[in-house]
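Here is the promised in-class demo. Please do not try to memorize the tokens; focus on the logic of going from shape to residues.
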């Protein structure tokens, strides 16, 4: 009896060893398979194929394909490769989808973003997208896109999901850092700059997540309802801008819209995207949970299931047999993917993309420049900043985050930076041996206070890290993570950050140190807004650095010691309290999005935020005057043109952002008080004045009439409000009229 038991146990153990052996061998096999070729020239298509040509050629390829080959184009083959490379190589490798050597069809080679190339052994880790939005510098974002395009190609990537343009409806949103903030206009302009620059390097950009994905914890299920006006005027315009600009792919969102998963929504994926907007690229699902019913996805217009065939693959034949879809549906989807890839393969490369480009020092230098341009100086009591180098022999650098490798979320937007300059390291390197650095992580509050008293100046680094905000995965998406889940390496902690104040560890440190040294700067590291009313009056200076990327510490040192003046402006509103914002619940199953959030909500309710949208100080001062409206009457179809003089009235060089808002107070319908419609960032030497020209095509002034299902331009008087922030008192005012001949 005993012998039998031992034999049985041995047999079970042997089977387990064999299975584990097979598993390990398969893992190794998958991880070590060579990368595929993603140079257009290798796929042997003639150069410069036109859109119509691509349609014809795609139809030709399609006619040659078996059903199995078509189905292969409709899904990624990537999950096991991704997991295997994480385990065996320590980074996420490119994930492939489709590809057919016989018919010269290249594969899609996917990587995530948006702070760099996520699926590569190493890459430049830029400041997060929200920090880049805070630069309000379109040209800088274009340069970031150029680098991302180059690094994508150097990593063997031709399909880049590094453009998240969901709107920051509420700053508690866990993935706020991946977005460009609360405003559709700023989001669209920044997104367009990035997208065009990346696509210039023959990388198909995938803009995500279409649509309404602005809550993280319940993202897989939350049902978003909203009026047609909120959808068209607030949540979709930036997607439309990208489609008009030629974005080649769109990723749908996990959440539901009006009771239906976005991945199944014919209204979103076909009616709006293709029929109304004329999108000619292909739609991908968000990963794993983006589709729940393959036939429904296919009927709605979901072309590609990522990252592996679960609802598509072999099941497509069943859907056909059951009459749930037609072969015409499959052909339409595959044709869209094929035409996009043929166009890609017919473009000539403008450059050679060698692996040395990955995290190249010049790219890291750009990351530093962006971190400098995006940091927002929120408060600078008594002009305490910049610290004077010669006056600081001892610097106290306080807080746990001062030494943290803290570039943001560790979910899909994670980037394998070859190094990260933490704040303390950046300051120490910048100041050199002559300056003594006193560091305390803040756990010993007495020590922190002693350091603050003993130093000539204090930098207190507070805020968050990836465990506290960011992408979030759990089993059900509707309840908080269990302790076991939190410990698992496969669980992304993070999630929504609600409410918005600092953690106790930071509040205690601020309490302990405030008053100990009048040269105190609080540096906030965060991927979204932080409420500060409980402590901000007790500290002189606050610099919001966001997650400033791999060169963040260097940038910070240069900002604090005045090598460069802060010039970032808030891409979101920072309220006194979350109660001032729209309703938010990280575990909401249902939620309604309205027309108003952020500055439009504050405007509408006649309230002022302590730190309004568009706000940010500098070490110098600026004056706006001489606002001129070039023509007081603009015909429908015409363009409003204005100029304004911006002068640097201080003693240091700096950059200011001229922001143009259009006012709708005369409207016959319920509209925002004002909306951002143009902006320009200008560098100004002390005493220098520049005349800045700003324009708005009248098409951008329309509202969506849900009854008529049409955009309408009101012929009426519009306000022209120009200044350095959205705060009413900061704005010069004029007006113009839209009127027909
Ligand atoms: C995220 C996407 C991402 C994808 C692949 C999803 O969970 O929502 O933004 O592109 O994973 O990593």
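The designed amino acids, position by position:
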């Amino acid at each position: 009896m005993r012998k039998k038991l031992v034999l049985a146990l041995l047999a079970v153990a042997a089977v387990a060893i064999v299975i584990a052996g097979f598993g390990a061998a398969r893992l190794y096999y998958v991880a070590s398979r060579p990368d595929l070729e993603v140079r257009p020239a290798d796929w042997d298509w003639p150069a410069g194929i036109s859109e119509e040509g691509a349609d014809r050629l795609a139809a030709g390829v399609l006619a040659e394909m078996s059903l199995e080959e078509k189905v292969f184009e409709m899904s990624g083959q990537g999950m096991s490769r991704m997991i295997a490379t994480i385990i065996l190589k320590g980074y996420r490798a490119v994930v492939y989808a489709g590809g057919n050597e016989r018919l010269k069809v290249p594969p899609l080679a996917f990587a995530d973003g948006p702070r760099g190339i996520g699926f590569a052994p190493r890459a430049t880790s830029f400041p997060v997208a929200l920090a880049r939005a805070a630069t309000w510098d379109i040209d800088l974002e274009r340069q970031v896109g150029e680098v991302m395009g180059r690094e994508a190609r150097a990593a063997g990537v031709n399909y880049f999901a590094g453009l998240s343009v969901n709107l920051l409806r509420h700053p508690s949103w866990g993935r706020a850092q991946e977005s460009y903030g609360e405003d559709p206009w700023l989001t669209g302009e920044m997104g367009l700059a990035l997208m065009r620059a990346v696509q210039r390097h023959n990388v198909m950009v995938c803009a995500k997540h279409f649509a309404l994905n602005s809550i993280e914890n319940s993202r897989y299920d939350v049902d978003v309802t909203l009026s047609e006006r909120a959808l068209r005027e607030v949540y979709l315009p930036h997607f439309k801008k990208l489609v008009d600009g030629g974005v080649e792919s769109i990723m749908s969102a996990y959440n539901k819209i009006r009771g239906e998963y976005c991945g199944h929504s014919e209204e979103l994926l076909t009616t709006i995207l293709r029929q109304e907007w004329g999108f000619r690229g292909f739609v991908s699902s968000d990963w794993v949970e983006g589709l729940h019913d393959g036939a429904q996805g296919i009927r709605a217009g979901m072309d590609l299931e990522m990252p592996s065939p679960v609802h598509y693959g072999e099941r497509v034949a069943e859907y056909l047999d059951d009459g749930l879809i037609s072969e015409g549906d499959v052909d339409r989807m595959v044709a869209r993917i094929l035409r996009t890839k043929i166009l890609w393969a017919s473009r000539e490369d403008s450059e050679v993309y060698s692996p040395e480009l990955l995290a190249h020092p010049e790219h890291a230098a750009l990351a530093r420049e962006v971190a400098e341009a995006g940091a927002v100086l929120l408060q600078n009591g008594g002009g305490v900043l910049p610290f004077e180098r010669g006056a600081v022999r001892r610097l106290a650098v306080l807080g746990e985050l001062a030494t943290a490798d803290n570039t943001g979320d560790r979910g899909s937007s994670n980037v394998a930076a070859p190094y990260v300059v933490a704040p303390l390291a950046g300051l120490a390197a910048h100041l050199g041996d002559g300056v003594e650095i006193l560091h305390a992580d803040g756990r010993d509050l007495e020590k922190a206070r002693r350091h603050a008293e003993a130093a000539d100046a204090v930098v207190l680094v507070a805020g968050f890290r990836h465990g506290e905000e960011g992408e979030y995965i759990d089993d059900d998406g509707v309840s908080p993570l269990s302790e076991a889940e939190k410990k698992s390496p496969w669980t992304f902690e993070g999630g929504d950050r609600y409410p918005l104040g600092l953690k106790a560890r930071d509040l205690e440190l601020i309490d302990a140190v405030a008053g100990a040294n009048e040269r105190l700067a609080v540096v906030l590291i965060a991927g979204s807004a932080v409420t500060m009313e409980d402590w901000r009056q007790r500290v002189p200076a606050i610099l919001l650095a966001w997650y400033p990327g791999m060169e963040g510490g260097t940038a910070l040192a240069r900002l604090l010691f005045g090598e460069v003046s802060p010039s970032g402006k808030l891409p979101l509103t920072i309220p006194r309290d979350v109660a001032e914002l729209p309703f938010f619940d990280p575990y909401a199953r249902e939620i309604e999005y309205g027309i108003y959030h952020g500055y439009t909500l504050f405007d509408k309710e006649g309230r002022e935020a302590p730190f309004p949208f568009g706000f940010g100080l500098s070490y110098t001062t600026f004056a706006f005057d001489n606002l001129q409206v070039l023509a007081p009457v603009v015909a429908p179809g015409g363009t409003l043109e204005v100029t304004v003089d911006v002068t640097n009235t201080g003693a240091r060089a700096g950059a200011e952002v001229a922001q143009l808002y259009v006012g709708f107070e005369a409207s016959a319908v319920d509209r925002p008080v004002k909306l951002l419609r143009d902006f320009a960032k200008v560098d100004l030497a002390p005493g220098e004045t520049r005349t800045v020209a700003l324009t708005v095509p009248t098409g951008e002034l329309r509202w969506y009439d849900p009854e008529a299902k049409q955009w309408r331009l009101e012929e009426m008087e519009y306000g022209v409000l120009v200044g350095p922030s959205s705060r009413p008192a900061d704005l010069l005012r004029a007006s113009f009229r839209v009127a027909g001949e």
